[in-house]
Task: inverse folding
């Protein structure tokens, strides 16, 4: 059972570089999201999507772009990396029901360092 | 949008002690409530969830939580902790009429053997 797969696990970028964090899920979940985790701040929502072709901003969207061309994939793009984007990034997916979002399934995370 | 606050940043307990971690949320409508656990170096895993019905919910590994609507609270409890419960615990809230799930800042639990 693959679940939610994130790549890469670790990445070091120089300030100003761009990169894409990949996220794929094989559970046919409608809802996918990206969070960043920083010490003492918990998980903060960056962007989310409720289905293919639909994305929206979360709490901390600046400096990040997303797209959702398929149900399975939800890549996160850093346009011009900054040291403030050093963090651990988690992708998650959830099945949506009449009760809203149910359990979120998380990927293993990507530890990103911007120097 | 909804917000979540967890009162304790770091809790240190001895094995067999009882645990209660506080969680309060701010949102006036209907919510789904969750507790997740993150063991060192791992991703978040679901401990338990509440959608409706009995406000006392039981999860994995002997954890339970009680939803008190009047207090906007969803506190996590365990009668007797083990060393293996050492982890970070996150409360999360999803409002039924919007799409995002918000997390608290987390509580780090250290259990001394």
Result:
């Amino acid at each position: 059972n693959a679940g939610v797969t994130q790549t890469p696990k670790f990445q070091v970028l120089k300030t100003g570089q761009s990169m894409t964090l990949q996220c794929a899920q094989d559970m046919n979940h409608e809802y996918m999201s990206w969070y960043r985790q920083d010490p003492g701040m918990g998980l903060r929502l960056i962007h989310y999507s409720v289905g293919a072709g639909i994305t929206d901003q979360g709490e901390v969207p600046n400096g990040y772009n997303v797209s959702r061309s398929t149900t399975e994939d939800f890549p996160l793009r850093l346009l011009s990396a900054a040291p403030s984007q050093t963090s651990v990034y988690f992708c998650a997916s959830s099945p949506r029901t009449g009760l809203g979002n149910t359990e979120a399934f998380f990927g293993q995370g990507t530890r990103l360092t911007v120097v | 949008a909804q917000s979540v606050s967890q009162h304790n940043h770091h809790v240190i307990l001895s094995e067999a002690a009882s645990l209660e971690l506080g969680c309060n949320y701010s949102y006036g409508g209907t919510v789904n409530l969750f507790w997740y656990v993150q063991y060192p170096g791992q991703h978040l895993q679901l401990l338990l969830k509440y959608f409706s019905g009995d406000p006392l919910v039981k999860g994995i590994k002997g954890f339970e939580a009680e939803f008190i609507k009047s207090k906007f609270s969803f506190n996590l409890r365990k009668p007797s902790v083990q060393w293996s419960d050492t982890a970070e615990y996150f409360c999360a809230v999803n409002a039924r009429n919007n799409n995002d799930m918000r997390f608290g800042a987390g509580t780090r639990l250290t259990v001394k053997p």
Notes: The radius of gyration of chain A is 13 Å. The interface with chain B takes residues 31, 33, 35, 40-45, 48, 50, 56, 58-59, 90, 92, 94, 99-104, 106-109 of chain A (CB under 8 Å).
